[in-house]
Amino acid sequence: MPIDLNDVQPDRELIEPGIYGLQIAVKEGHGGKDGWLKLAKNQRSLMLELECKVTAAITKKGELTPSEHNGKIVRDWITLEFIEDDAMHLPLITADELERFRTSVRLGRKKLRAIVDSAHGLDPKDDSFVAKERRKLQSYDELNGLTFYAQIEERAGQGKYGPSNTIDFVITPDLPDYPKQEDTAGAWLAKRRSIDEELNDMIPNFGTPKQ
Question: What is the DSSP letter of 123?
Answer without folding.
Answer: -
